[in-house]
Amino acid sequence: MLAALQPVQALALECNDNSIRSAYWFYKVQADTYQLALGEFSNLRKVDEQEPIMDDDGLTDGFEIWEGTFSGFTASRGAIDKPFEARVTLELPDNAFIGGALPSSSQLNSLQDAMGLVWLRETEAGYRLIGELCMPLIDTNPASIKPTLRCLNGGYCPKF
Length: 160
Prior knowledge:
- This protein has a five-stranded mixed β-barrel.
- It is globular.
- It is α+β, with helices and mostly antiparallel strands.
- The protein starts with a helix and ends in an 8-residue tail after the last helix.
- Helix content is 19%, strand content 36%.
- It is built from four helices and five strands; from the N terminus they run ααβββαββα.
- The protein has helices at 2-14, 24-28, 104-108, 145-152; strands at 34-50, 63-75, 80-93, 116-123, 126-130.
- Strand 4 (116-123) and strand 5 form a beta hairpin.
């Protein structure tokens, strides 16, 4: 029984700071273009689902695809103040932070109308948000805004 818990414990040790600010350096070095925005999702609806498939390690890799509207603001030089609204596709793997190995739809209600920071990936088809194991889809902590702006403006921004 104890052996079954070890991978979860090891995983937890890798997720030290679950904030949008902590991901700044990750998104900065990506080849894709990411847009930092502050706002909220509305009109969320599921458009597709892949049933979980067990792999050789006993892990599942199912996911759900949702669409919604993100309304808010993007960052300018000193503030997050440029009006922004876009349709966003959300890809939610079963092991994503929002899903926690539960069906994503049972957790997504907490995302509807929650104000916070997000990193949206720009694609030819529009904006995408992909759930990660350690990163929340939306950082709803208001205390994250100032440190994130400091990172964007080249100020003190620790790497985690």
